[in-house]
């Protein structure tokens, strides 16, 4: 019970972080030390149904509450204190890099590891090439809308599972960010159902592939994840294209240092 409560509390932060364009729920799960367990619970569910059901239930409840409880608060913070909050998350993301390097088992500067990191970085950077609004349903007929939203759910699930790729950023690219937040706030099941179905398919498929890669090619996979995480910084930097001024300078520096230090400290006890 104690472990389930801890998982729920951590996934609460994952759900809240997923609301922010440019911030990856997968990265937050790594920061909080529950990412590996999440992947294994999804991809090897049948191996220990009771254990994995308890973990996924705790994670799902926590992440869902994080989205429902913090949607308005997160949006308010980023509307009113966008630059300081971005520096906080940049510090958190950079603070997660040493732990990922440690998991990879590759020494810094080794060519093979750097190649995989570069591939991961380039993959995230390539997301900016996706045409904006390609899944905006508009006035499409109900069947077409259902199919488009289900496919969008698969894409968003992949973004959620892969660290460094922001779920909210993908929703923005697909053209359904605002309408999805409104649907969550209004509990619009008709709109959310195909997204959830597609999300379930995308989550299971991606988790199985990623878990096998982490087991068979541990070093390469974690270095690619390092690239994903570093690539996510591009979207955060785009959100704050100018340097802080005035009172924002010490505030941004303090929040950056706090985010970096907190993640470094948490990573020591995440297991």
Structure description:
By secondary structure, the chain is mostly helical. The protein has one domain (2-269). It contains 12 helices and no strands. It has helices spanning 2-17, 25-31, 35-43, 49-80, 82-104, 111-125, 142-161, 167-174, 177-186, 189-216, 218-239, 248-269. Helix 1 runs parallel beside helix 4, helix 2 (25-31) packs across helix 5 and helix 3 (35-43) crosses helix 10 (189-216). The protein starts with a helix and ends with a helix.
| DSSP, total strands | 0
Would you list the SSEs in sequence order as H and E?
A: HHHHHHHHHHHH
Mind telling me the C-alpha Rg?
Answer: 18 Å
Low-confidence stretches: none
Mean pLDDT over all positions = 78
State which percent range the strand residues make up: under 5%
Structural class: mainly alpha
The total number of structural domains is: 1
Largest sheet geometry: none
Topology summary:
Layout: H1 2-17, H2 25-31, H3 35-43, H4 49-80, H5 82-104, H6 111-125, H7 142-161, H8 167-174, H9 177-186, H10 189-216, H11 218-239, H12 248-269
Helix pairs in contact: 1-2, 1-4, 2-5, 3-4, 3-10, 4-5, 5-11, 5-12, 6-11, 7-8, 7-10, 10-11
Short description:
By secondary structure, this protein is an all-alpha fold. 78% of the residues lie in helices and 0% in strands. The mean pLDDT is 78.
Describe the structure using short key phrases.
mainly alpha
